[in-house]
Design goal:
With 560 residues, the chain is of the alpha/beta class. Helices cover 40% and strands 9% of the residues. The longest helix has 28 residues. It starts with a strand and ends in a 10-residue tail after the last helix. Its EC number is 2.8.2.-. Belongs to the sulfotransferase 1 family.
Length: 560
C-alpha cells in the first residue's frame, strides 16, 4: 500500500490521486483522521511490505502548505520549468554579449570616454563646442571624464623620462661577426656602369638545376610561386657566358621606402613604379632585413628557418634581367652607355622593426639593441637612398587599429586599447631608456595598439647615426594627399630620375589613391575626442623634436 503524505489517504496502485496537491487544507483534522490520529510518523510501504531499513518520514503538521507538493508535479511541468530556465540563461548571455559592445552593462568599464571640460586647450585649442560637434554623448548620459586625469599622469611620467641620446655606432668588424655569410655574398664594389648597385656572380648549376628550388619565399607563400615559375622559364636566357663559365647578374635596391605603415607607402609605391626608369622587387614588401632573415614569417607563429641573403636577391632578378639587357646592348658596348634603371624596395617595417634582435644578438647594452637594420644596409650600401612617408601619428594609430583589428572594432575599444598601451609603455620607461622601450620585443607584442610606430623621431635619429641627412627624404602624407604632383616631383628629383612626357606624368599623378580605408572601417567614424586629446599629449614631445630635426613645423601636426 502507498500513502499520500499530505492527506494520509491510502493510495491504490492505479489511483493517481490527482487532488493530493491541494487536499490537505484547513479542514484537515489530525485527530479525526484515522491514519494520523495519535501518530506523528508514518511508515512508507512498497508492495504491501514495510521498509524497515529506511528511516521513517516525519510529517510536519504546523504548515498549511508544504513544499513536498512539488514532488507531485507532472513530468511535463518539470520539463517546462527546465526549458524556461534554459531560455532565461540564453537571454542573459545575449544581453551580456550585446551589452558589452554597446556600453549597456551594469559593470562600468575601467576606462571612460567623453569630452572633458576642465582643459579645453588639450585639443590643440579646440573649444568644447568643437568637440561636441565631433562627438555627442550617448543617450544614457554617462560621464567618463574622471579617468582622464589618471591617464594624463601616465603621459606626464612618460614625458619626464624622455631623453634623446645618440646611440653608439658599431664598427664593421662587429657586423661581420654577426652576419659572416651575408658579407661573403655581397661584394664591396659594384659595376661602375650601372646606377643601381649590381654585380656578376658565378652560377655553378647546370641546365637541369632549379635555381629557385630552395627559395624560402617560394616555399612558404603560394602567391609568390607564379612569379618564380616565370623566373625559372627565363633564367637561362639571362645568364652571361664568359670563358666557359656562367654568370648571373645580382642586384640590390638603389633606394628603400622604409616607412611608416599606414602612412601612404603603398600609394607612393604604386605611383613610383609607373616611372620608366624604376623597377621594384618581385614582392612589394619582402620584410627581409627586419623579419625574414631572422626566420620570422609571423611573430605569432614563432621562428622558421632563416631566409638567406640569396633568397632576398632572387626577388630582384626580374629587374636585373632588364638592367642586364641595357648593359649588354650595342650602345653600352660601343659608347659606354650608363644604365639608369634603378630598383626600389618598399617594406614599411624597415625603419622601425628591430624586434628580433633580442633573440640573436648579445644583450649587454641594458636592453638597447647593439645592432640595427641600418647598420647592415649602410655596411653594404653606404650610398643608398631612403624615402620615409609619415602622417599625423594620432591618425596613423587609429588607421593601424582599423586595419589590423579583426573583430569588435569600435571607438570605445580603441580608447581602451590606447589607455592600456600607455600604461605598459609607462611601466617600461620607469626602468629602461626610451630606445630600449621602443625596441623592446616583449613590450611591443604586449601593447594592444602599436604606439611605438608613431615615435618617428626616435627611429629617424638612429638612421641619421649611419646615413647623411641628404640621403633621406621625409614626406608627409597630408602633403601628398593634397598635392600628389608636387610630392612625386620631389621624389623624382631626390632619386635623380629621367624626365617624363606629359602623358607619363599625368598617368603617375592622376591615378587614384591606393590602399584607402575600407568602407566598413569608415562607417565607424572618427576616434573619440578624448582619445585624440590623450594621443596628442603623448606624441607632442616626439613631434616637437621631429620638427626641430627636420627644420619644419609642419611635422608638429597641430591642425590635421
Amino acid at each position: 500500500m502507498r500513502y499520500c503524505i499530505n492527506c494520509c489517504i491510502h493510495l491504490l496502485p492505479n489511483d493517481l490521486h490527482r487532488q493530493c496537491f491541494r487536499c490537505r487544507g484547513p479542514n484537515h483534522n489530525n485527530q479525526k483522521c484515522p491514519v494520523c490520529k495519535e501518530e506523528s510518523k508514518i511508515p512508507l510501504y512498497t508492495d504491501s511490505k514495510q521498509m524497515k531499513l529506511l528511516a521513517v518520514l516525519e510529517v510536519r503538521t504546523d504548515h498549511n502548505e508544504s513544499w513536498n507538493g512539488v514532488f507531485c508535479l507532472r513530468k511535463g511541468k518539470l520539463c517546462s520549468l527546465i526549458f524556461g530556465l534554459i531560455i532565461m540563461t540564453l537571454v542573459m548571455a545575449s544581453y551580456i554579449l550585446t551589452g558589452a559592445k554597446h556600453g549597456l552593462l551594469l559593470i562600468p568599464s575601467p576606462f571612460h570616454y567623453g569630452a572633458f571640460t576642465s582643459n579645453p586647450s588639450l585639443m590643440d585649442n579646440e573649444s568644447l563646442s568643437d568637440m561636441k560637434d565631433h562627438y555627442q554623448p550617448s543617450k544614457m548620459n554617462i560621464s567618463y571624464i574622471k579617468d582622464y586625469p589618471s591617464i594624463k599622469l601616465i603621459i606626464d611620467t612618460i614625458t619626464s623620462k624622455i631623453e634623446f641620446i645618440t646611440r653608439q655606432r658599431p664598427d664593421s668588424e662587429e657586423l661581420r661577426k654577426q652576419e659572416p655569410h651575408m658579407f661573403s655574398v655581397i661584394p664591396n664594389k659594384f659595376l661602375p656602369n650601372s646606377k643601381n648597385p649590381c654585380w656578376y656572380e658565378e652560377y655553378r648549376g647546370n641546365t637541369t638545376t632549379d635555381p629557385y628550388a630552395t627559395n624560402s619565399y617560394a616555399l612558404y607563400s603560394k602567391r609568390f610561386r607564379t612569379i618564380f615559375d616565370y623566373l625559372r622559364k627565363v633564367f637561362w636566357n639571362h645568364l652571361y657566358h664568359y670563358k666557359d663559365k656562367h654568370y648571373r647578374l645580382r642586384c640590390l635596391p638603389h633606394f628603400y621606402i622604409i616607412g611608416q605603415p599606414k602612412c601612404g607607402t603603398t600609394d607612393l609605391y604604386d605611383r613610383l613604379r609607373l616611372h620608366p626608369d624604376v623597377r621594384f622587387s618581385a614582392i612589394k614588401e619582402p620584410h627581409w632585413w627586419t623579419r625574414k632573415r631572422f626566420g620570422i614569417i609571423r611573430l605569432r607563429d614563432g621562428f622558421h628557418d632563416r631566409y638567406p641573403v640569396e633568397d632576398y636577391l632572387d626577388l630582384f632578378d626580374l629587374a636585373a634581367h632588364q638592367i642586364q639587357g641595357v648593359l649588354q646592348s650595342e650602345a653600352a658596348k660601343e659608347h659606354g652607355k650608363m644604365n639608369n634603371i634603378v630598383i626600389g624596395e618598399a617594406s614599411a617595417s624597415t625603419m622601425w622593426d628591430n624586434n628580433a634582435w633580442i633573440f640573436f644578438y648579445d644583450n649587454s647594452t641594458e636592453g638597447e639593441p647593439p645592432f640595427l637594420i641600418q647598420d647592415f644596409i649602410h655596411a653594404f650600401q653606404p650610398n643608398a637612398k631612403l624615402i620615409i612617408m609619415l602622417r599625423d601619428p594620432v591618425e596613423r594609430l587609429y588607421s593601424d587599429y582599423l586595419y589590423f583589428a579583426s573583430a569588435n572594432k569600435s571607438v570605445e575599444d580603441f580608447h581602451e586599447k590606447v589607455a592600456e598601451s600607455l600604461q605598459l609603455f609607462e611601466n617600461c620607461m620607469l626602468d629602461y631608456s626610451l630606445r630600449a622601450c621602443v625596441y623592446n620585443n616583449t613590450l611591443n607584442n604586449a601593447m594592444p595598439v602599436r604606439l611605438q610606430v608613431g615615435l618617428y623621431v626616435v627611429y629617424l635619429l638612429d638612421w641619421l647615426t649611419v646615413f647623411n641627412k641628404d640621403q633621406i627624404l621625409v614626406l608627409r602624407l597630408e602633403d601628398h594627399a593634397s598635392n600628389v604632383k608636387y610630392t612625386m616631383h620631389m621624389v623624382f628629383q631626390f632619386l635623380d630620375l629621367g624626365p617624363l612626357s606629359e602623358k607619363q606624368e599625368a598617368l603617375i599623378t592622376k591615378s587614384p589613391a591606393s590602399n584607402t580605408r575600407r568602407p566598413e572601417d569608415r562607417s565607424l567614424g572618427p576616434m573619440l575626442p578624448t582619445t585624440k586629446a590623450i594621443l596628442r599629449d603623448f606624441y607632442r614631445p616626439f613631434n616637437t623634436k621631429l620638427a626641430q630635426v627636420l627644420f619644419d613645423d609642419a611635422f608638429l601636426w597641430k591642425r590635421t
